[in-house]
Each structure stands twice: as structure tokens, then as C-alpha cells.
């Protein structure tokens, strides 16, 4: 029975979120060494605020796993799982605990590392808090999914409905926030902290603006999975969109607005943390450049079935190439022009090719 749960729930969960996990692993362990991770953990063990922040991130991940399992239990093709409640309670809870431990394996592994460091430095209060929180997360997850198993159609509180027409450009941001909050939070937190950290790295007269370009490059690559997610969203919920009589300017303009909304928090972070000797106009120019390159990445990923390993390899090659160009002094104006013009040319050529094919 446990093997059955792993194949039906645990395996598909990791397969569905493989892109997110790849981005997390690349960002967390590709740019930080084990020593730097240990320093961050040590700082969190000595700071209740930082430790609480870690707990909140773990809690969000746990909520994602709970939502996934409850969604699978309600899926039409998995309605036969309702018979699982006939299994004796003790055995059923043991199976749920094993499945939940497998779903929470990433945070349990990281929590185990934190516990080991806490024991080394004799931080017994932090050690107890981490172990207790992991225990609570597993317990909450098991309780939530077992309750949904026993109450497949719960009656909730119904509030008066409010009708509000939303424009198309906010469909995907709202979907991303509602159904993939962990991906949204991790993407924006990484991008925001990276840009803020780069801005504060050298707050002196000899600040090298190329550092901002490197930070921008990493922040853009941190959004590498967004184009695929938007493409999957439209192909699942907006099947008629490709057949609508829209010009390439209209289609391109819609994506310009969508990515402008997604990229807006980075503008606020750059303006708030702008180095003293860097012009505010340069910071805005930098943000506009990132906007264009997000559109270009979307154009490369949209409507294509790309193998995750190949896409990740392309991201790595893009990082190395972009880093070399920044080191050799490619100006911000060139980055701006390449991003925006290439993205616009892609939609113009694609629309013309589509018209030729129809004829």
C-alpha cells in the first residue's frame, strides 16, 4: 500500500514540480558554498526572527503539499482512493505519515542539517524549536489529508458572491499566486533579495555598475520557469487564445503588460536600495532591460515542449555568456536593445509565418 501511495502521490508531486526544485537547487547550492550555507544557518540559530522566517517558508511548502494531496484525492481519476478510509485507522495514519515524510523530505533534510549544527554549537532552544516545528508540520499534513479523505465533500461557509470582471493580463498572475504560491514566493524572494544585496554590496564612491548587471542577469534567470508556466496555463485554460483574430502587436502587447506586472516588485526594490553614486535613471533603465529580457525568455519557451535538462543547460550557458559580456563592458543600452528588439521580432516573424501557413 505504501508503494502504491508513493507512485500515485509522492512521485507525481516531485515530477510536477521538477522545474521549481531544479531552480531552487541551482540558486541555493549553485551560488552558495557549504560554508556560506552553514554561516546562514548559524545566523538563523542565533536570531529568532530569521528562524521564524525559515519556519514560515517551511510552512508554505507544507501547505503546498497538503493542497496537492487534497487535490489528488478529489480528482475524478482518483476517486477510488475514497476506499482508503476503510483501512484501520492506525495503519492508515502510519501510511499517511510515511507519505508526508516523503513529501517533506527537502525541508526535513535541511532541518536535520540545522539540528546537527545546533547540537554542535549547543543551541538547545533552537534545536528544540526546529524539531518541534518539523513534528508539527508532519502532524498538520497528515491530519489535513486524512480529514479530507473522510470528508470528501465538506460543507463550507458560503459568503455572498461578488462579481468582478478581471482583465486578461491578470489571469496568470492571479493563477500563479493562488495555485503555485511557493513558486511565486521563492522566485520573487530570490530575485528581490539578490537585487537588494547587490545594491548594498559596495555603497561607496568606487561602486562598479557592472555588479548591478550581474545581479540583474541572475534575477532574470531566476524567472526562467515563468514562461513555461504561463504557456502551460494558457494551453490548459485558454484553448481558444491562439485562434483569436489578434495582430502580433496585440499579442505582444498583452505579454508586455503581464510581465510588467510580474517584474514590478523589482523596480520598487531597486528604487529603494539604489546605491548613492548610481543615477536613478540608470536603475530605471536597468529595470526596463530586465523587462525586455523576461519577454525574450518567454518567447523562447512559449508553446514549446522543452526537456527540463536541456532548458537548464541553456540557462547555465546563458549565464556564462552573459557574465563574460558584462565583464567585457557591454553597455546597458545594448542589453536593452537586444532584449526588446529580439522579443518583438520573434512575435512579428511568428505572426507572419502563421499567416503564410494559413494561406
Automatic annotation (TrEMBL):
It comes from the Bacteria. It comes from Spirosoma terrae. Keywords: Membrane, Transmembrane, Transmembrane helix. This is ABC transporter permease. The chain crosses the membrane at residues 13-32, 39-61, 93-115, 127-145, 184-203, 209-231, 252-272, 278-296, 332-349.
